[in-house]
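Severity: low
Component: inverse-folding endpoint
Summary: output formatting inconsistent between runs
Steps to reproduce: submit the following structure tokens with default settings.
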């Protein structure tokens, strides 16, 4: 195998060297030639097989559990790859593997693909590495995306992508089903924590940064430490009317384009190689059957070149669940003709059989099959899988290194968002006597939640003991003798609330760690956004004891805490901060880190008042007034920041002319701190009622006490444009307001490119 690699390196158009590794980057023309040549040799069966993806479960003898090791079934593996020609395998069954075992699995699979098949086409293995290589036991884990969004730090986001790519590829896997570019527009949705929050611009910037990290600055996924990224779940997933996962969404075309499409558009511009389809339906149309979304918008408008993979079982569900196709075979025809290139079937070979029959009967033209297979092979060639389908054992050394863990810790610190700090109650002095209580205080799993070692992330025994819980981190910081611990309640039931109250009476402060137990996807559906009663009771009982209460919220979505917010001295939002979250929380509580995170979603005050920050003029005044507990963008610091000299040039511009914005921010506090400077734009009047404001730019400024910095932003046409009454993309003349910090200023668009449709 080494010999093959060496020869192919010499034969390639451009050579790159990474420490100890040589790889070649083929030109696009060469790849296109390779794809065509290979396609011309393939039988129909081989082509349809390439479009088939099965789960590892389908080729396994034994599932992995916390107690038992997983094992592949060589006979099933051969059946899948040799008989059915499958092109792709995914997932774990059911527990993350140690790195060495991943090497065995991938090697076994690629041996069959490259040595036992006629054409030797390697398998593309795909995995959900959602917050780091979370299905590799030794890997570095990061805060979940919702927390990364609070940190608002594209460089850190990119770095987490680079580390994730390194560790996924080090496991022998070249394809990551991430980022999730859906938006957190309904707080009930259990997948909110996988997103970058409710705002399209924020998700666009962080998504693109992460993709650059995974795929490389120039989308050079052929590099041995890069993987193909997969933007998902295209398009309009995450806005189910009921708030429950995989339930109907109703999204008009204008909203789809103004709100949900931009992060995907940016990802395509960033060069992303693959996309996964929305598992639900929009406006009555299952996304997997939607030609408009999958072909007209994705291919013709966005110019996406890569491969479209279905989500789990979702082609079949057009028939079995959605009742849009009367047979399984018809569902396959509809999905493939709508634009799905690969089916995550995932348990059997039904897709293969149905598509083969459809192609033989001429119901799916061969040209469409060649197109889909061409895209799949394009990704495989881009990944250099033909030259090197096997894991690189040398990469093992850096997996889970301290260098990588430090990045995760920094991310957790930057994510933490101080929502309330009455009379500067925090930070706490390290000589205080502290009660730590609440169900999130002494568990590692809840800091990470879903997609950690298992799908649901709730297997506490799998979590490495060297990572600290919140309780352990506080004990380590101020000395165990100063810390009392009483759980108080589970996530849903009261335990020893009376005992917690007694312990609070003997403490100077109670740190109440509440929130959500680990969950993932549909099992995380809830019927009520309120924090469960047992936890509210615990917090209220402690507050009544008179001991000052600090809430630490460990949760993947904003559960309603209103009944206990007023009587808390301070509230720290931790989101799902990852394995270093305990340390980061202790750092912030005791003043070793100055918090600077900003909410990436609106924190609702009431369970039925769920409006995003870019609400409409109709919601400005009583009785409809938008009144959340905390707005998107809210987040306090132990320092204070003052804004001055907001300048806009020009004040009157033509459509398309860039607008320059400058502002000076000063740290007027006594500690160094990071202020995330955010620019919000309001179109004052337009033919479709405007959002009250929209985030258009942000930039982090790290400032010493007394230090100032001037931040500059440029607004472009896309920042001002929207889809008008006829769904055309327009900028309408008129006044715009720019707001940064507590300052605002106006500019005017005096002439537009096209006539507006007021
Ligand atoms: C999820 C996807 C995921 C896939 C493969 C599905 O249930 O919706 O996000 O990539 O499973 O694990």
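Observed output (run 2 of 3):
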């Amino acid at each position: 195998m080494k010999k093959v690699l060496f020869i192919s390196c010499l034969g390639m158009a451009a050579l790159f060297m990474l420490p100890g590794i040589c790889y070649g980057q083929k030109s696009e023309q060469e790849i296109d030639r390779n794809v065509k040549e290979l396609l011309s040799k393939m039988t129909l069966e081989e082509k349809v097989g390439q479009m088939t993806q099965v789960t590892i479960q389908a080729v396994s003898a034994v599932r992995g559990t916390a107690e038992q090791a997983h094992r592949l079934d060589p006979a099933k593996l051969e059946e899948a790859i040799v008989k059915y020609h499958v092109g792709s395998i995914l997932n774990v069954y059911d527990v993350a593997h140690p790195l060495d075992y991943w090497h065995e699995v991938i090697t076994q699979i690629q041996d069959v693909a490259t040595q036992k098949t006629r054409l030797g086409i390697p398998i593309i293995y795909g995995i959900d590495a959602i917050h780091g290589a979370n299905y590799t036991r030794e890997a570095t884990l990061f805060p979940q995306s919702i927390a990364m969004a609070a940190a608002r730090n594209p460089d850190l986001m990119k770095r987490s992508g680079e580390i994730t790519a390194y560790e996924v590829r080090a496991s022998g896997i070249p394809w990551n089903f991430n980022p999730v570019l859906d938006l957190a527009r309904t707080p009930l949705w259990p997948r909110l924590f996988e997103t970058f929050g409710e705002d399209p611009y924020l998700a666009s910037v962080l998504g693109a940064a992460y993709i650059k990290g995974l795929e490389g600055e120039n989308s050079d996924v052929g590099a041995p430490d890069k993987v193909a990224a997969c933007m998902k779940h295209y398009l309009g997933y995450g806005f189910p009317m009921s708030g429950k996962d995989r339930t109907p969404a109703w999204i008009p075309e204008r909203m789809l384009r103004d709100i949900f499409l931009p992060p995907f558009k940016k990802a395509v511009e960033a060069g992303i190689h693959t996309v996964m389809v929305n598992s639900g339906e929009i406006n009555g149309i299952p996304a997997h059957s939607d030609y408009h979304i999958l072909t007209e918008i994705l291919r013709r408008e966005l110019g996406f070149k890569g491969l479209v993979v279905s989500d789990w079982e979702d082609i079949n569900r057009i028939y079995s669940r959605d009742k849009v196709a009367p047979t399984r075979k018809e569902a396959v025809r509809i999905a493939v003709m709508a634009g799905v290139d690969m089916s995550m079937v995932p348990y059997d070979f039904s897709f293969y059989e149905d598509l083969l029959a459809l192609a033989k009967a001429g119901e799916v033209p061969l040209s469409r099959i060649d197109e889909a297979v061409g895209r799949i092979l394009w990704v495989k060639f881009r990944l250099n899988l033909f030259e090197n389908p096997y894991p690189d054992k040398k990469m093992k050394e850096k997996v889970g290194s301290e260098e990588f863990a430090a990045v995760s810790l920094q991310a957790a610190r930057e994510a933490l968002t101080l929502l309330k700090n009455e009379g500067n109650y925090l930070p706490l002095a390290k000589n205080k006597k502290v009660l730590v209580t609440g169900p999130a205080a002494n568990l590692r799993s809840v800091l990470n939640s879903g997609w950690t070692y298992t799908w649901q992330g709730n297997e506490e025994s799998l979590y490495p003991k060297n990572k600290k819980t919140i309780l352990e981190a506080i004990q380590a910081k101020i000395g165990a003798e100063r810390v009392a611990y009483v759980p108080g309640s589970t996530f849903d039931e009261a335990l020893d609330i009376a005992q917690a109250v007694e312990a609070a009476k003997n403490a100077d402060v109670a740190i109440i760690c509440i929130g959500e137990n680990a969950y993932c996807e549909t099992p995380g559906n809830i019927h009520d956004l309120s924090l469960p009663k047992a936890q509210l009771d615990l917090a209220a009982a402690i507050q009544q004891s008179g001991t000052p209460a600090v809430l630490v919220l460990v949760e993947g979505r904003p559960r309603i805490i209103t009944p206990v917010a007023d009587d808390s001295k301070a509230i720290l939002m931790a989101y799902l901060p990852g394995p270093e979250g305990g340390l980061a929380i202790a750092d912030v509580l005791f003043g070793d880190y100055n918090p600077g995170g900003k909410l990436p979603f609106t924190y609702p005050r009431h369970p039925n008042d769920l409006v995003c920050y870019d609400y409409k003029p109709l919601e400005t005044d009583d009785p409809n007034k938008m009144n959340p507990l905390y707005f998107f963008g809210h987040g306090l610091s132990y320092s204070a920041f003052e804004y001055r000299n907001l300048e806009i040039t020009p004040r009157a511009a033509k459509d398309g002319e860039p607008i320059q914005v400058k502002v000076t921010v000063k740290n007027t506090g006594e500690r160094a701190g990071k202020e995330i400077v955010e620019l919000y734009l309001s179109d004052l009047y337009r033919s479709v009622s405007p959002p009250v404001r929209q985030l258009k730019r942000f930039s982090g400024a790290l400032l010493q006490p007394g230090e100032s910095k001037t931040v500059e932003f440029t607004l472009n046409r896309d920042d001002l444009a929207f889809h008008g009454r006829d769904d055309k993309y327009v900028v309408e003349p008129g006044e715009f307001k720019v707001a940064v910090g507590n300052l605002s200023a106006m500019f005017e668009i005096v002439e537009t490119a096209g006539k507006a449709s007021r």
